[in-house]
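If you are new to this repository, start here. Below is one unmodified record pulled from the training split, so you can see the exact layout before writing a loader.
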Amino acid sequence: MPSQKLSLQQKLLQKLSPQQIQVIKLLEIPTVQLEQRIKKELEENPVLEMASDMPDNSEEEQDNTSEKESDEFSLEDYMQDDDIPNYRLSTNNYSKDDKQVDIPFSTGVSFHEFLHEQLGLAELDETQRKLAEYIIGNIDEDGYLRRDLFSISDDLAFTMNMDVSEKQLEEILESIQDFDPPGVGARDLQECLSLQIQRKKGSEPTLLASKIIDQNFEEFTKKHYDKILKRYDLQEEELKEAIDEILKLNPKPGSSYSNPLNRANQVIVPDFILDNIDGELQLSLNQKNVPDLKMNGTYLDMLKAYTGNKKKISKDQKDAMVFVKQKLDSAKWFIDAIKQRHHTLLVTMSEIIEFQKEYFKEGDETKMKPMILKDIADRTGLDISTISRVSNSKYIQTHFGIFPLKFFFSEGMQKDTGEEVSTREIKKILQDCIDNEDKRKPLTDEKLAQILKEKSYPIARRTVAKYREQLELPVARLRKEL
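And here is the target side for that same chain:
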Protein backbone atom coordinates (compact mmCIF):
# COMPACT_ATOMS: atom_id res chain seq x y z
CA MET A 1 0.00 0.00 0.00
CA PRO A 2 1.56 3.36 -1.04
CA SER A 3 2.26 5.80 1.76
CA GLN A 4 0.16 8.94 2.10
CA LYS A 5 1.51 12.35 2.92
CA LEU A 6 0.45 15.99 2.97
CA SER A 7 2.36 18.70 1.15
CA LEU A 8 1.99 22.38 0.28
CA GLN A 9 2.68 23.70 -3.20
CA GLN A 10 2.03 26.86 -5.17
CA LYS A 11 0.43 26.89 -8.59
CA LEU A 12 -0.17 29.72 -11.02
CA LEU A 13 -3.65 29.27 -12.48
CA GLN A 14 -5.76 31.38 -14.78
CA LYS A 15 -9.31 31.76 -13.44
CA LEU A 16 -12.15 34.10 -14.30
CA SER A 17 -13.64 36.15 -11.49
CA PRO A 18 -17.45 36.20 -11.07
CA GLN A 19 -17.48 39.77 -12.45
CA GLN A 20 -15.58 38.71 -15.58
CA ILE A 21 -17.99 35.83 -16.13
CA GLN A 22 -20.93 38.24 -15.87
CA VAL A 23 -19.29 40.61 -18.40
CA ILE A 24 -18.91 37.70 -20.84
CA LYS A 25 -22.56 36.73 -20.36
CA LEU A 26 -23.68 40.32 -20.94
CA LEU A 27 -21.63 40.40 -24.14
CA GLU A 28 -23.27 37.23 -25.46
CA ILE A 29 -26.92 38.15 -24.96
CA PRO A 30 -28.90 40.10 -27.60
CA THR A 31 -30.75 43.35 -26.98
CA VAL A 32 -34.05 41.77 -25.89
CA GLN A 33 -32.39 39.68 -23.17
CA LEU A 34 -30.29 42.68 -22.12
CA GLU A 35 -33.48 44.61 -21.35
CA GLN A 36 -34.69 41.75 -19.14
CA ARG A 37 -31.29 41.51 -17.42
CA ILE A 38 -31.32 45.25 -16.60
CA LYS A 39 -34.86 45.03 -15.22
CA LYS A 40 -33.81 42.15 -13.00
CA GLU A 41 -30.81 44.11 -11.70
CA LEU A 42 -33.02 47.15 -11.02
CA GLU A 43 -35.34 44.97 -8.94
CA GLU A 44 -32.53 43.37 -6.94
CA ASN A 45 -30.30 46.40 -6.32
CA PRO A 46 -31.99 49.42 -4.62
CA VAL A 47 -28.93 51.59 -5.30
CA LEU A 48 -29.33 51.22 -9.08
CA GLU A 49 -31.94 53.32 -10.88
CA MET A 50 -32.82 54.57 -14.31
CA ALA A 51 -31.43 58.01 -15.14
CA SER A 52 -34.87 59.14 -16.32
CA ASP A 53 -36.31 58.49 -12.84
CA MET A 54 -34.77 61.71 -11.46
CA PRO A 55 -35.12 64.61 -13.91
CA ASP A 56 -33.00 67.74 -13.49
CA ASN A 57 -35.14 70.17 -11.46
CA SER A 58 -34.31 72.98 -9.08
CA GLU A 59 -32.18 72.35 -5.98
CA GLU A 60 -35.20 72.70 -3.71
CA GLU A 61 -37.15 70.05 -5.67
CA GLN A 62 -34.17 67.68 -5.53
CA ASP A 63 -33.91 68.14 -1.75
CA ASN A 64 -37.62 67.36 -1.40
CA THR A 65 -37.19 64.27 -3.60
CA SER A 66 -34.29 63.06 -1.48
CA GLU A 67 -36.36 63.51 1.69
CA LYS A 68 -39.23 61.55 0.20
CA GLU A 69 -36.91 58.76 -0.91
CA SER A 70 -35.35 58.65 2.53
CA ASP A 71 -38.82 58.12 3.99
CA GLU A 72 -39.74 55.47 1.45
CA PHE A 73 -36.49 53.49 1.59
CA SER A 74 -35.20 52.76 5.07
CA LEU A 75 -32.05 50.67 5.43
CA GLU A 76 -33.83 48.26 7.78
CA ASP A 77 -36.00 47.15 4.84
CA TYR A 78 -32.92 45.71 3.14
CA MET A 79 -31.02 44.34 6.15
CA GLN A 80 -32.80 40.95 6.10
CA ASP A 81 -32.30 40.48 2.36
CA ASP A 82 -32.82 36.74 1.85
CA ASP A 83 -32.34 34.96 -1.45
CA ILE A 84 -36.13 34.71 -1.88
CA PRO A 85 -37.90 37.63 -0.16
CA ASN A 86 -41.18 36.89 1.59
CA TYR A 87 -43.12 39.28 -0.63
CA ARG A 88 -42.43 37.00 -3.61
CA LEU A 89 -44.00 34.03 -1.86
CA SER A 90 -47.18 35.39 -0.29
CA THR A 91 -49.32 38.50 0.09
CA ASN A 92 -51.20 39.70 3.15
CA ASN A 93 -52.83 42.82 1.73
CA TYR A 94 -56.34 41.33 1.46
CA SER A 95 -59.04 41.35 4.09
CA LYS A 96 -61.42 38.48 4.86
CA ASP A 97 -64.28 40.39 3.21
CA ASP A 98 -62.51 40.68 -0.14
CA LYS A 99 -63.93 38.51 -2.89
CA GLN A 100 -61.55 36.57 -5.08
CA VAL A 101 -62.69 37.03 -8.67
CA ASP A 102 -61.07 34.85 -11.31
CA ILE A 103 -60.76 36.56 -14.67
CA PRO A 104 -61.30 34.04 -17.49
CA PHE A 105 -58.45 33.73 -19.96
CA SER A 106 -59.44 33.07 -23.54
CA THR A 107 -57.21 30.81 -25.61
CA GLY A 108 -57.50 28.90 -28.83
CA VAL A 109 -58.16 25.23 -29.52
CA SER A 110 -55.20 22.97 -30.29
CA PHE A 111 -55.05 20.62 -33.27
CA HIS A 112 -55.79 17.51 -31.17
CA GLU A 113 -58.63 19.25 -29.31
CA PHE A 114 -60.10 20.09 -32.71
CA LEU A 115 -60.01 16.38 -33.64
CA HIS A 116 -61.64 15.40 -30.32
CA GLU A 117 -64.44 17.90 -30.95
CA GLN A 118 -65.19 16.21 -34.28
CA LEU A 119 -65.03 12.81 -32.59
CA GLY A 120 -67.99 13.85 -30.47
CA LEU A 121 -70.09 14.15 -33.64
CA ALA A 122 -69.09 10.76 -35.06
CA GLU A 123 -71.50 7.82 -34.90
CA LEU A 124 -69.41 5.45 -32.75
CA ASP A 125 -70.24 3.28 -29.76
CA GLU A 126 -68.37 3.55 -26.43
CA THR A 127 -65.69 0.99 -27.32
CA GLN A 128 -65.08 2.47 -30.75
CA ARG A 129 -64.86 5.95 -29.22
CA LYS A 130 -62.11 4.80 -26.83
CA LEU A 131 -60.19 3.27 -29.71
CA ALA A 132 -60.60 6.45 -31.78
CA GLU A 133 -59.30 8.56 -28.88
CA TYR A 134 -56.25 6.30 -28.64
CA ILE A 135 -55.58 6.60 -32.38
CA ILE A 136 -55.96 10.40 -32.26
CA GLY A 137 -53.44 10.46 -29.43
CA ASN A 138 -50.93 8.81 -31.77
CA ILE A 139 -51.42 11.39 -34.55
CA ASP A 140 -48.53 13.89 -34.62
CA GLU A 141 -48.68 17.66 -35.12
CA ASP A 142 -48.30 17.28 -38.90
CA GLY A 143 -51.49 15.18 -38.98
CA TYR A 144 -49.83 11.81 -39.68
CA LEU A 145 -50.30 8.48 -37.90
CA ARG A 146 -46.65 7.42 -37.77
CA ARG A 147 -47.28 4.11 -35.96
CA ASP A 148 -48.59 1.03 -37.73
CA LEU A 149 -51.91 -0.48 -36.63
CA PHE A 150 -50.26 -3.74 -35.52
CA SER A 151 -48.19 -1.88 -32.91
CA ILE A 152 -51.26 0.06 -31.75
CA SER A 153 -53.16 -3.24 -31.40
CA ASP A 154 -50.34 -4.61 -29.20
CA ASP A 155 -50.36 -1.46 -27.05
CA LEU A 156 -54.10 -1.73 -26.50
CA ALA A 157 -53.74 -5.34 -25.40
CA PHE A 158 -51.05 -4.55 -22.85
CA THR A 159 -52.18 -1.14 -21.52
CA MET A 160 -56.00 -1.34 -21.76
CA ASN A 161 -56.54 -5.13 -21.88
CA MET A 162 -58.47 -4.76 -25.15
CA ASP A 163 -58.21 -7.43 -27.83
CA VAL A 164 -58.64 -5.42 -31.04
CA SER A 165 -57.80 -6.61 -34.54
CA GLU A 166 -56.06 -4.52 -37.18
CA LYS A 167 -59.23 -4.65 -39.28
CA GLN A 168 -61.26 -2.99 -36.51
CA LEU A 169 -58.61 -0.30 -36.10
CA GLU A 170 -58.59 0.22 -39.88
CA GLU A 171 -62.34 0.89 -39.88
CA ILE A 172 -62.03 3.44 -37.07
CA LEU A 173 -59.05 5.09 -38.79
CA GLU A 174 -61.15 5.48 -41.94
CA SER A 175 -63.72 7.38 -39.86
CA ILE A 176 -61.00 9.66 -38.47
CA GLN A 177 -59.69 10.27 -42.01
CA ASP A 178 -63.07 11.84 -42.81
CA PHE A 179 -62.34 14.57 -40.24
CA ASP A 180 -61.00 18.01 -41.06
CA PRO A 181 -58.44 19.07 -42.12
CA PRO A 182 -58.40 16.82 -45.21
CA GLY A 183 -55.57 14.28 -45.13
CA VAL A 184 -55.50 13.86 -41.35
CA GLY A 185 -54.72 10.35 -40.11
CA ALA A 186 -52.67 9.40 -43.17
CA ARG A 187 -49.80 6.96 -42.67
CA ASP A 188 -47.57 8.33 -45.43
CA LEU A 189 -47.41 11.16 -47.94
CA GLN A 190 -49.09 9.18 -50.72
CA GLU A 191 -52.13 8.38 -48.57
CA CYS A 192 -52.26 11.99 -47.33
CA LEU A 193 -52.39 13.42 -50.87
CA SER A 194 -54.87 10.72 -51.96
CA LEU A 195 -57.27 11.60 -49.12
CA GLN A 196 -57.14 15.27 -50.07
CA ILE A 197 -57.61 14.79 -53.81
CA GLN A 198 -60.65 12.57 -53.18
CA ARG A 199 -62.49 15.48 -51.57
CA LYS A 200 -62.12 17.67 -54.66
CA LYS A 201 -64.62 17.92 -57.46
CA GLY A 202 -64.14 15.36 -60.21
CA SER A 203 -62.75 17.52 -63.01
CA GLU A 204 -60.44 15.91 -65.60
CA PRO A 205 -57.19 17.28 -64.08
CA THR A 206 -58.35 16.15 -60.63
CA LEU A 207 -59.20 12.63 -61.82
CA LEU A 208 -55.83 12.37 -63.57
CA ALA A 209 -54.07 13.68 -60.46
CA SER A 210 -55.82 11.01 -58.39
CA LYS A 211 -54.62 8.29 -60.79
CA ILE A 212 -51.04 9.58 -60.68
CA ILE A 213 -51.03 9.63 -56.86
CA ASP A 214 -52.55 6.15 -56.51
CA GLN A 215 -50.79 4.35 -59.37
CA ASN A 216 -47.66 6.31 -60.35
CA PHE A 217 -46.58 8.02 -57.16
CA GLU A 218 -42.96 6.81 -57.38
CA GLU A 219 -42.58 8.13 -60.94
CA PHE A 220 -44.15 11.42 -59.85
CA THR A 221 -41.82 11.92 -56.87
CA LYS A 222 -38.77 11.16 -59.04
CA LYS A 223 -40.15 13.41 -61.80
CA HIS A 224 -40.08 10.69 -64.45
CA TYR A 225 -42.72 12.55 -66.45
CA ASP A 226 -41.90 10.74 -69.69
CA LYS A 227 -43.09 7.44 -68.21
CA ILE A 228 -46.38 9.00 -67.05
CA LEU A 229 -46.97 10.63 -70.44
CA LYS A 230 -46.37 7.33 -72.21
CA ARG A 231 -48.54 5.27 -69.84
CA TYR A 232 -51.63 7.45 -70.13
CA ASP A 233 -50.97 8.74 -73.66
CA LEU A 234 -51.13 12.35 -72.50
CA GLN A 235 -50.11 15.73 -73.82
CA GLU A 236 -47.64 17.73 -71.73
CA GLU A 237 -50.28 20.40 -71.04
CA GLU A 238 -52.69 17.80 -69.61
CA LEU A 239 -50.00 16.40 -67.32
CA LYS A 240 -49.01 19.91 -66.25
CA GLU A 241 -52.62 20.68 -65.19
CA ALA A 242 -52.76 17.46 -63.14
CA ILE A 243 -49.42 18.20 -61.48
CA ASP A 244 -50.63 21.71 -60.62
CA GLU A 245 -53.59 20.12 -58.83
CA ILE A 246 -51.23 17.91 -56.80
CA LEU A 247 -48.97 20.83 -55.91
CA LYS A 248 -51.95 22.67 -54.41
CA LEU A 249 -52.37 19.90 -51.81
CA ASN A 250 -50.94 20.25 -48.30
CA PRO A 251 -48.26 17.65 -47.40
CA LYS A 252 -48.69 18.53 -43.70
CA PRO A 253 -52.43 18.84 -43.04
CA GLY A 254 -51.95 19.33 -39.30
CA SER A 255 -50.05 22.56 -39.89
CA SER A 256 -53.01 23.98 -41.83
CA TYR A 257 -55.00 24.15 -38.59
CA SER A 258 -53.28 27.11 -36.96
CA ASN A 259 -55.04 29.15 -34.34
CA PRO A 260 -53.67 32.74 -34.12
CA LEU A 261 -53.97 32.62 -30.31
CA ASN A 262 -51.65 29.61 -30.17
CA ARG A 263 -49.17 30.86 -32.73
CA ALA A 264 -45.76 31.86 -31.43
CA ASN A 265 -44.07 34.15 -33.92
CA GLN A 266 -40.41 34.92 -33.51
CA VAL A 267 -39.80 38.65 -33.59
CA ILE A 268 -36.27 39.74 -34.49
CA VAL A 269 -35.06 42.85 -32.68
CA PRO A 270 -31.87 44.16 -34.35
CA ASP A 271 -28.93 44.95 -32.08
CA PHE A 272 -27.38 47.38 -34.58
CA ILE A 273 -28.90 49.91 -36.96
CA LEU A 274 -26.96 50.93 -40.08
CA ASP A 275 -28.16 53.97 -42.03
CA ASN A 276 -26.91 55.04 -45.44
CA ILE A 277 -27.18 58.83 -45.46
CA ASP A 278 -25.96 60.42 -48.70
CA GLY A 279 -23.53 57.56 -49.27
CA GLU A 280 -22.15 57.70 -45.72
CA LEU A 281 -22.67 54.68 -43.48
CA GLN A 282 -23.72 55.55 -39.91
CA LEU A 283 -23.77 52.80 -37.29
CA SER A 284 -25.66 52.96 -34.00
CA LEU A 285 -26.71 50.54 -31.27
CA ASN A 286 -30.40 49.82 -30.89
CA GLN A 287 -30.94 51.30 -27.40
CA LYS A 288 -34.63 52.09 -27.81
CA ASN A 289 -35.78 50.10 -24.77
CA VAL A 290 -32.47 49.95 -22.88
CA PRO A 291 -32.53 52.58 -20.10
CA ASP A 292 -29.58 54.68 -18.95
CA LEU A 293 -28.49 53.67 -15.46
CA LYS A 294 -27.04 55.60 -12.53
CA MET A 295 -26.56 55.21 -8.79
CA ASN A 296 -29.09 56.64 -6.38
CA GLY A 297 -27.64 59.80 -4.78
CA THR A 298 -29.47 59.18 -1.49
CA TYR A 299 -27.43 56.07 -0.75
CA LEU A 300 -24.21 57.84 -1.72
CA ASP A 301 -25.01 60.59 0.79
CA MET A 302 -25.74 57.96 3.44
CA LEU A 303 -22.38 56.33 2.89
CA LYS A 304 -20.60 59.68 3.11
CA ALA A 305 -22.41 60.55 6.35
CA TYR A 306 -21.54 57.23 7.98
CA THR A 307 -17.93 57.44 6.77
CA GLY A 308 -17.51 60.91 8.31
CA ASN A 309 -18.76 59.71 11.74
CA LYS A 310 -17.14 56.30 12.11
CA LYS A 311 -16.54 56.74 15.85
CA LYS A 312 -20.17 57.54 16.67
CA ILE A 313 -21.98 54.90 14.62
CA SER A 314 -23.53 51.83 16.27
CA LYS A 315 -23.10 48.21 15.25
CA ASP A 316 -26.43 48.22 13.35
CA GLN A 317 -25.38 51.36 11.49
CA LYS A 318 -22.06 49.77 10.65
CA ASP A 319 -23.83 46.71 9.22
CA ALA A 320 -26.05 49.04 7.23
CA MET A 321 -22.99 50.86 5.88
CA VAL A 322 -21.43 47.55 4.79
CA PHE A 323 -24.68 46.60 3.04
CA VAL A 324 -24.90 49.95 1.23
CA LYS A 325 -21.26 49.75 0.17
CA GLN A 326 -21.80 46.29 -1.30
CA LYS A 327 -24.81 47.46 -3.26
CA LEU A 328 -22.94 50.55 -4.48
CA ASP A 329 -20.02 48.42 -5.66
CA SER A 330 -22.41 46.05 -7.41
CA ALA A 331 -24.23 48.95 -9.12
CA LYS A 332 -20.96 50.59 -10.23
CA TRP A 333 -19.69 47.31 -11.63
CA PHE A 334 -22.96 46.66 -13.52
CA ILE A 335 -22.93 50.15 -15.10
CA ASP A 336 -19.30 49.70 -16.14
CA ALA A 337 -20.10 46.25 -17.59
CA ILE A 338 -22.92 47.70 -19.70
CA LYS A 339 -20.62 50.46 -20.97
CA GLN A 340 -17.93 47.91 -21.79
CA ARG A 341 -20.49 45.80 -23.66
CA HIS A 342 -21.62 48.80 -25.75
CA HIS A 343 -18.02 49.74 -26.56
CA THR A 344 -17.05 46.19 -27.60
CA LEU A 345 -20.14 45.78 -29.79
CA LEU A 346 -19.58 49.10 -31.59
CA VAL A 347 -15.85 48.50 -32.13
CA THR A 348 -16.45 45.01 -33.53
CA MET A 349 -19.36 45.98 -35.80
CA SER A 350 -17.51 49.06 -37.06
CA GLU A 351 -14.61 46.89 -38.19
CA ILE A 352 -16.98 44.42 -39.88
CA ILE A 353 -18.58 47.29 -41.79
CA GLU A 354 -15.18 48.75 -42.71
CA PHE A 355 -14.02 45.33 -43.93
CA GLN A 356 -17.18 44.81 -46.02
CA LYS A 357 -17.72 48.47 -46.95
CA GLU A 358 -18.50 47.85 -50.63
CA TYR A 359 -21.12 45.28 -49.72
CA PHE A 360 -22.85 47.43 -47.10
CA LYS A 361 -23.17 50.36 -49.51
CA GLU A 362 -25.22 48.44 -52.08
CA GLY A 363 -26.11 45.08 -50.53
CA ASP A 364 -24.66 43.17 -53.51
CA GLU A 365 -23.45 39.76 -52.29
CA THR A 366 -20.98 39.49 -55.15
CA LYS A 367 -19.00 42.33 -53.53
CA MET A 368 -18.66 40.54 -50.21
CA LYS A 369 -15.07 39.71 -49.29
CA PRO A 370 -14.00 36.49 -47.58
CA MET A 371 -13.87 37.17 -43.85
CA ILE A 372 -13.26 34.99 -40.80
CA LEU A 373 -13.31 35.72 -37.06
CA LYS A 374 -9.52 36.07 -36.97
CA ASP A 375 -9.63 38.94 -39.49
CA ILE A 376 -11.83 41.05 -37.20
CA ALA A 377 -9.91 39.96 -34.10
CA ASP A 378 -6.67 41.23 -35.66
CA ARG A 379 -8.25 44.56 -36.63
CA THR A 380 -9.85 45.19 -33.23
CA GLY A 381 -7.15 43.73 -31.02
CA LEU A 382 -9.76 41.57 -29.29
CA ASP A 383 -9.67 37.84 -28.75
CA ILE A 384 -11.33 35.53 -31.31
CA SER A 385 -13.66 34.21 -28.60
CA THR A 386 -14.86 37.78 -27.96
CA ILE A 387 -15.61 38.30 -31.67
CA SER A 388 -17.47 34.99 -31.68
CA ARG A 389 -19.61 36.07 -28.71
CA VAL A 390 -20.41 39.41 -30.36
CA SER A 391 -21.46 37.79 -33.64
CA ASN A 392 -23.54 35.08 -31.96
CA SER A 393 -27.35 35.56 -32.00
CA LYS A 394 -27.17 39.25 -32.93
CA TYR A 395 -28.68 41.06 -35.90
CA ILE A 396 -28.09 44.27 -37.83
CA GLN A 397 -30.74 46.33 -39.60
CA THR A 398 -29.55 47.79 -42.90
CA HIS A 399 -31.27 49.69 -45.69
CA PHE A 400 -31.54 46.41 -47.64
CA GLY A 401 -32.72 44.07 -44.88
CA ILE A 402 -32.03 42.54 -41.46
CA PHE A 403 -29.20 40.01 -41.26
CA PRO A 404 -27.51 37.94 -38.54
CA LEU A 405 -23.90 38.92 -37.98
CA LYS A 406 -22.76 35.40 -38.86
CA PHE A 407 -24.03 36.05 -42.39
CA PHE A 408 -21.05 38.31 -43.13
CA PHE A 409 -18.43 35.68 -42.27
CA SER A 410 -17.46 33.30 -45.06
CA GLU A 411 -14.51 31.34 -46.37
CA GLY A 412 -12.50 32.38 -49.39
CA MET A 413 -11.02 30.85 -52.52
CA GLN A 414 -8.78 32.03 -55.35
CA LYS A 415 -9.93 32.62 -58.90
CA ASP A 416 -7.83 31.79 -61.95
CA THR A 417 -6.61 35.38 -61.90
CA GLY A 418 -5.27 34.95 -58.33
CA GLU A 419 -7.95 37.20 -56.83
CA GLU A 420 -9.42 35.94 -53.53
CA VAL A 421 -13.22 35.89 -53.43
CA SER A 422 -15.84 34.88 -50.88
CA THR A 423 -17.66 31.58 -51.18
CA ARG A 424 -20.85 33.59 -50.72
CA GLU A 425 -20.15 35.26 -54.06
CA ILE A 426 -19.89 31.84 -55.69
CA LYS A 427 -23.14 30.72 -54.07
CA LYS A 428 -24.86 33.85 -55.39
CA ILE A 429 -23.72 33.07 -58.94
CA LEU A 430 -24.79 29.45 -58.46
CA GLN A 431 -28.24 30.58 -57.25
CA ASP A 432 -28.62 32.91 -60.26
CA CYS A 433 -27.68 30.11 -62.67
CA ILE A 434 -30.29 27.77 -61.20
CA ASP A 435 -32.98 30.49 -61.06
CA ASN A 436 -32.49 31.29 -64.75
CA GLU A 437 -32.09 27.72 -66.04
CA ASP A 438 -34.50 26.00 -68.42
CA LYS A 439 -36.68 24.01 -66.03
CA ARG A 440 -37.39 21.46 -68.77
CA LYS A 441 -33.66 20.67 -68.85
CA PRO A 442 -32.18 21.72 -65.49
CA LEU A 443 -28.43 22.19 -65.17
CA THR A 444 -26.58 19.26 -63.66
CA ASP A 445 -23.81 19.75 -61.09
CA GLU A 446 -21.26 18.94 -63.81
CA LYS A 447 -22.69 21.65 -66.06
CA LEU A 448 -22.79 24.16 -63.20
CA ALA A 449 -19.13 23.44 -62.44
CA GLN A 450 -18.31 24.06 -66.10
CA ILE A 451 -20.19 27.40 -66.10
CA LEU A 452 -18.34 28.53 -62.95
CA LYS A 453 -15.03 27.49 -64.51
CA GLU A 454 -15.80 29.67 -67.53
CA LYS A 455 -16.33 32.56 -65.08
CA SER A 456 -12.81 31.93 -63.63
CA TYR A 457 -14.05 29.96 -60.59
CA PRO A 458 -12.19 26.61 -60.68
CA ILE A 459 -14.56 24.47 -58.59
CA ALA A 460 -14.96 20.70 -58.62
CA ARG A 461 -18.34 19.08 -59.15
CA ARG A 462 -18.49 17.75 -55.57
CA THR A 463 -17.89 21.31 -54.29
CA VAL A 464 -20.77 22.55 -56.44
CA ALA A 465 -22.96 19.82 -54.93
CA LYS A 466 -21.93 20.94 -51.43
CA TYR A 467 -22.79 24.60 -52.13
CA ARG A 468 -26.08 23.58 -53.76
CA GLU A 469 -27.06 21.59 -50.67
CA GLN A 470 -26.15 24.54 -48.44
CA LEU A 471 -28.52 26.65 -50.56
CA GLU A 472 -31.18 23.93 -50.00
CA LEU A 473 -31.56 23.34 -53.74
CA PRO A 474 -32.46 19.83 -55.02
CA VAL A 475 -30.58 17.93 -57.71
CA ALA A 476 -31.28 18.65 -61.38
CA ARG A 477 -33.79 15.77 -61.79
CA LEU A 478 -35.96 17.08 -58.95
CA ARG A 479 -35.90 20.64 -60.33
CA LYS A 480 -37.40 19.52 -63.61
CA GLU A 481 -40.73 21.08 -64.61
CA LEU A 482 -43.05 20.76 -67.61
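Two things worth knowing about this chain: Residues 272-408 form one domain. The longest helix spans residues 315-355.
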